[in-house]
Amino acid sequence: MKTRRQSKRYAMAIDLRRCVGCQTCTAACKSANATPPGVQWRRVLDIETGEFPDVRRTFMPVACMHCANPPCMHVCPTTATKQREDGLVTIDYAICIGCANCVMACPYDARSIEHELRYAYGEPMKSETARFDPQRLGVATKCTFCKERIDQAAVTGQVPGVDPEVTPACVNSCISGAMHFGDVKDPKSNVSKLLAETEHFRMHEELGTDPSVYYIWDGGEG
Amino acid sequence: MSGPPQVLDRVSPRLQTNWDARAAANFICGGAGGGLMLATALAATLGDKDLRPLVVIALTLVGAGLTAVWFEIGRPWRAFNVFRHASTSWMARESLIAPVLFACGGAAILLERPAAFVAAGLIGVAYVYAQGRMLQANKGIPAFRQMSCVHMIVVTGLTEGAGLMAVASAHWPSLLAFAYLLAALLVLRYLAWRSYVANLRSVGAPTGALDAFRAIETGFVWAGHAAPAVMALAAGVGDIPLLAALAGALAAAAGAWFKYTLVCRASFTQGFALTRLPTRGGGKPGAGVKPGWTQT
Hints:
- By secondary structure, chain A is an alpha+beta fold.
- Chain A has helices spanning 24-33, 71-75, 101-105, 126-131, 147-156, 169-173, 190-197, and strands at 10-15, 43-51, 54-62, 81-83, 89-91, 112-113, 140-141, 179-183, 198-201, 213-219.
- In chain A, the strands form four sheets. Chain A has a four-stranded mixed beta sheet. Chain A has a two-stranded antiparallel ribbon with strand order 2-3.
- The radius of gyration of chain A is 18 Å and the shape is globular.
- Chain B has a single domain (21-272), classed as Formate dehydrogenase/DMSO reductase fold (Up-down Bundle), CATH 1.20.1630.10.
- Chain B has helices spanning 21-46, 52-70, 90-111, 114-136, 147-168, 178-203, 207-238, 241-265, and strands spanning 6-7, 274-277, 286-289.
- In chain B, a hairpin with an 8-residue loop joins strand 2 and strand 3 (286-289).
- The chains are: A alpha+beta, B mainly alpha.
- At the A-B interface, strand 2, strand 3, helix 2, helix 3 and strand 10 of A face strand 1, helix 3 and strand 2 of B.
- Strand 2 of chain A pairs antiparallel with strand 1 of chain B.
């Protein structure tokens, strides 16, 4: 599959040295996107390695990687999964049939399908009723990089990753400054500069997905 | 760093739950139906029997598989959207091949011309191939994404088709020659199985996937291949249609068992891996981790 030529490509850089596993990004995502119980578009993995006394805990925030070569889009039989010019991978809930082919194709466990309504405490709270979106039932859902905010940037002239109003909720919420967002096609963007001065990797690059999330592990300020 | 990583979250591969027995039924029935269509086409070109009931059975199998998967999708009333993305999606291609298969099968039933049978048989193989490629395109499931998985799906479909023909020989003894074809395909499927599992081991796979295949290996190989192959050969040599039918049923059941295991038991996700552990403070980066895999 060929990777599309893009003038912009929004990406996330996550400094694993800074992440403390507080799950604030997880909570911010749930709050911003009103995902039902059991569905986490973003979550932080907790990996403990080594043997006493040489042990480590590593925290790794994961979500949709908005791949440049997204397997989910290629397998989607309906064209519900699309890729925007700015690199965001989107789902059209009005077209998706909930076949789960995209869920199986995603190597990042980023997609979910909820077949029935679920509430945190059995009965719906007012907030859950108010924010319920019937379009999301029975279809694939995932992290959108808060695309409504990014779209707002085109209207206001603000810069995603710099101005909080047009930056993904998880990035805004990060207490340790581990998460960064911006356009990697722009060499002057915050993310491009950060990646230029640090050592990083991308998850499962060997699968050819060309993910848009970079994990920093060394170099630079730390 | 030494010692296996302690996993405190969904880091390791886990068994997917989105495709269950209904999805497996599509691969089981679709593969058997497509394979039976090819075998019927072959038989139609070799003799003057009225094999239209077999075409009906093949189409019924394919239809049953599609119906089963229709009950699984989240938005069944939008099912026709499935045809929209044939440029890259093998699921869309499989869905587009299905009506062509029904049209060719219908033509074979109505016109009873060998050409219609042959067309239906070839489309039947295309249907099985599309199913294999659909699985292979799923990069998130290591047991699916190997090319050897496509080989296994196609050979299994053909074996099931020959197996069902052997079953049909109980009614049409002149079809007993298919017992030899069944034996040959069983050998081929055994080799494809060996190649598939060896391939999974060599490239690395979630341990759960290999455990799932290890759990069926003895029965699959002996009851699903060795026994029916011997029975099919004995049936052919001894002219015993009922023995051929039993061999065919065993071979088809083993194919279904494999596909159920593949879709519902071995379909572990990729999980997560760290190429290296991050540097913290004045420390050094640690070695990478890949929990739940046979190879790191």
